[in-house]
Amino acid sequence: MPDQSMKMSELISALSHALDMTEGQPPGHCIRACWIGMQLGQTCGLQAHQLWELYYTILLKDLGCSSNAARICQLYATDDLGFKHDFKSVDGSLKQVLNFVLQHTGVQKGLAERFKQTLSVMRNGTKWSTELMQTRCERGADIARQLRFNEAVAEGIRGLDEHWNGGGKPYGLKGDAISMYSRIALLSQVIDVFFTGTDRHACLAEVEKRCGSWFEPSLVECFLSIADDTFWDTLASTNLAELIIQLEPAQFQVTLDEDYIDEIAAAFGQVVDSKSPFTAGHSNRVALITDLLARELGYSQERRRWLKRAALLHDVGKLGISNSILDKPDKLTDEEFTTIKLHPTFTGEILSRIGAFKELADVAQAHHERMDGKGYPLGLQGDEVTLDTRIITTADIFDAITADRPYRGPIPVPQALEMMAEHLDTQVDRRCYEALLKVSHEFHFIEH
């Protein structure tokens, strides 16, 4: 369905909650950091176009965060979400870094394996952390460019982890060589992490401790000048999401057309697929198959476009699931399976934040429901599972079977179709399956 007059700020601020998930941050982290950054930018005298660029730099600062999740699990043998959450509190001192490594390396391994893994981190930690930061920053900047943001925003995202004294990563930029937007974004991020994790006093102490090393002194002075009771009360308020949409400089507001919404959905599909090497291209393939099925089933061009958008975003909730589960080569424990079953709920929570996406959120969230009532998360059955959802489910199952997985290789198309036929009218809709058979000759265009 057409999404009339949707503002860029509404869509991006809502989707930023997905980035909070994959960074292991409390809901609303990017929004709070954006609000902080805009207060700093206004106080520092940034012009309206600079404030607009700063606004999207901070909302999208974590665009590349999913791209290093699998590597973190591999190098540190740990849960990437907890790792990322806790790492944001580390100030870079030797003592804190060592404590962090000891507490987060190989936590799910036996004692001997954990010791061996920790030793590897001690030997290679600097090289590995630089690699992880570079992957994240470059990927984030690239996706920002795909979203039609200018180079100033892309560079702001790319330089997020650089420090004022040159001690940051991945490029060791120093002082004014770091984008102003990066400098404000980093300070805003740390302010929110310590405020939400502890309190305002700990936050102020941490900012002052890092002044001159991580942070530009004049920016810290600017922050201290506005950090009154009103500042902290507003930061803690429950209506900050509405305030953020109003903060976008009015003369630069972007109203999205259908093509742009499609591009944003595709870009966030890429963010999801970057989280695991086993899901590379999954969202795009499911979207393409969904579109073919909808065409075969007589959907209008308009409705096909809408459904393809839902397919691109159906797995956005996986950003809230650790790669230690997503990429596990062995059978999941009951507890791990319960965790992975949360991802459709997360998808619904993220997409339902967008007013015009209410129906789309319901359809995307239901992609693991079954006609026999044995699906999740809601246990829908029969006609409660709409044809829209059944189409996406069919496409999702087909791609999952034919794709490479941690526990097996890809299964050939003919065999995959035979496997799906065994679940007709329970997990796989018969009409969708028949449409799948008719369009399967077109799948050579869809590369795994």
Automatic annotation (TrEMBL):
SUPFAM superfamilies: HD-domain/PDEase-like. Residues 257-448 form the HD-GYP domain. InterPro entries: Cyclic_di-GMP/3'3'-cGAMP_PDE (IPR052020), HD/PDEase_dom (IPR003607), HD_GYP_dom (IPR037522), HDIG_dom (IPR006675). GO terms for molecular function: phosphoric diester hydrolase activity. Gene3D superfamilies: Hypothetical protein af1432. This is HDIG domain-containing protein. It comes from Neptunomonas antarctica.
